[in-house]
Specification:
Length: 188
């Protein structure tokens, strides 16, 4: 058993007869009244996100998990195929288990969290950022840069990311996976 002081991003807990992964949390100590922890939890079974507030010091049931490195191979509709880097075994996961499947390109190395009690995969964690090539974007209009102007760009993985006007087709950019936002252009 853990307490609310052990809550951190990525922690898997059992709550309301389901398994949830902590996406965001905030310890709050108001000037009046007891402290509490505000959390955003994502169900690993159906992908729904719920907000919950735990009083400080409350016991929570955490789940013992293992992390393994897997390589993303391909997808067939909503089924995504991954291969374990150590023993080359393959597993299939549904799209709902992935946080941002549109940012994954074939060959990407991801971390899969597996419940050590029943060996069921719980969630897939992408690296903090990925490098993707821009396959389609409109050309930027000269002189339209008075503010932080952006335009939509389609990546090689199919994701659409807002990028600055100076980004062109064929450029490689770094995308933050948690928010799906542009970070920087990669020079080659």
């Amino acid at each position: 058993m853990a307490t609310t002081s052990d809550i951190r991003n990525g922690l898997c807990i059992k709550y309301n007869n389901d398994i949830y992964k902590v996406i965001e949390f905030l310890h709050v100590k108001p000037g009046k009244g007891p402290a509490f922890v505000r959390t955003k939890l994502k169900s690993v079974t159906n992908g729904k996100v719920v907000d919950n507030t735990f009083p400080a010091g409350r016991k929570i049931e955490d789940i013992r998990v293992e992390t393994h490195k897997f390589q993303y191979l391909y997808n067939e509709g909503d089924t995504y195929h991954f291969m374990n880097e150590k023993d080359y075994s393959q597993i299939q996961l549904q799209k709902s288990a992935l946080d941002s499947p549109s940012l994954m390109k074939e060959g990407e190395i991801v971390t899969i969290i597996i419940n050590s009690e029943d060996d069921m995969p719980l969630s897939v964690d992408l690296p903090a950022s990925v490098v993707l090539e821009v396959t389609h974007t409109e050309p930027g209009v000269k002189g339209n840069t008075a503010t932080n102007a952006t335009k939509p760009a389609t990546m090689e993985s199919g994701a659409i990311v807002n990028v600055p006007l100076f980004i062109n087709e064929g450029d490689k950019i770094k995308v933050e996976t948690t928010k799906g936002t542009y970070q920087e252009r990669i020079k080659e």
